[in-house]
Design goal:
homodimer, alpha/beta, Rossmann fold, five-stranded parallel β-sheet, 36% helix
């Protein structure tokens, strides 16, 4: 184990497939005692994913912090028309890369998540923060692009006396490749949750459900998901 | 007024002298209707400054968002030894630039504040976020350095479909120069609050009180503060 890994990593864990695999990979490299998983309750429609995050963290026996940011919805996010924050906006169906998926963007989500994870890393004197943005996200979400991640990595190097490293091991990978890696690492993919509708079952029709199905199929991995 | 200013600015308002002057400057340039002030309750010891922020926002009749992040203290900031978060750690007295002032650092504070302000700007389709870091802060606070602000500015350009501009007009100014500008703009400096102790009166002995006194003296501006 490298000295960096021994100093610990904060993993952003949404409860989706990508962050589930990221936690599997990080625990594999760093040991569960040196890993903290961080999730944010920002008032998202699909809060079921927070339950999934809890189950995945429990599976790996890592500490799990859930940051309650629900109050942002009535102040910070005022005026926003994201389907994931505003119950009166319908969740778009179709392909993840479609323009309609713009409706699912939570404003500046990744910068908020990374800033909190970095604060947790600084507080614990950890060396790194990991997040699961992958190549397939880029078409729709500006804050999943490599250039965005690069600027945040610069800021995280400078925000404290000790630099915090931003790890983004999936930034050049497709979701199918992430899925394949998850299977290889025996990650509990069946515990992960992706659906934007937020129902007890995956709807199978929203952008993330469609993307999830495709990833399993393209990776040649058995899909454990129970779609409606 | 430029088109950018007409599209609106979110001002980070701690309630201290610097952000008070920043709000004065921004309202002067953008008109109060195009300005939102944002403060964060992150469980800081000196919550009196939030009352000061409210009074300053009211003075300028701008919308004021207070983001309740007190819950961070028991999760995200676990293990942190900042005197501003942990009541068992004593507030250091002496000069603001002393090494002892490291005890007052809130981990990754400015990245968190900027990420929330940026989310508010994106939600409202505003053009800019302004924060009041000045040259005198740099000695102690890594996240007040120009290089840190530059990386955050890059990330804010990339975090959404429309770029958000980071304004940091005081980054090359001393606190005395900021104070002088405040007096020129008739900013309500007497409403601002700086003391790290968080008492009803400024203690006059902690790092920020010492710095505040010096700034008024160096700027040749009458100090309206009632020190204990």
């Amino acid at each position: 184990m490298t000295e960096q890994n021994m100093r610990g990593t904060v993993v952003l864990l949404s409860g989706g497939m990508d962050s589930c695999v990221l936690l599997a990979k990080t625990v594999n490299e760093c040991d569960a005692d040196n890993v903290v998983a961080l999730s944010v309750d920002y008032g998202q429609r699909h809060w079921v994913e927070l339950e999934a995050a809890r189950a995945i963290a429990l599976h790996y026996e890592v500490e799990h912090i859930v940051v309650p940011l629900g109050a942002l919805v009535t102040g910070v996010f005022t005026g926003n028309q994201s389907s994931q924050l505003n119950p009166s906006v319908e969740v778009p169906h179709g392909h993840y890369a479609d323009d309609t998926m713009r409706a699912t963007v939570v404003p500046n989500r990744n910068m908020i998540l990374l800033s909190l994870a970095t604060a947790a890393a600084v507080s614990r004197r950890y060396a790194a923060v990991a997040y699961a943005a992958h190549a397939g996200d880029h078409a729709v979400y500006p804050d999943c692009r490599r250039v965005f991640a690069d600027s945040m990595a610069d800021a995280m190097q400078l925000c404290d006396y000790d630099a915090i490293q931003l790890r983004r091991p999936f930034i050049g990978m497709s979701k199918a490749e992430v899925c394949r890696l998850g299977a290889d690492l025996a990650a509990p993919l069946g515990l992960s949750y992706s659906c934007y509708e937020g129902g007890p079952q995956h709807c199978g029709k929203c952008g993330t459900c469609v993307e999830r199905k495709e990833a399993f199929a393209d990776a040649g991995v058995d899909d454990p998901t129970d779609y409606a």
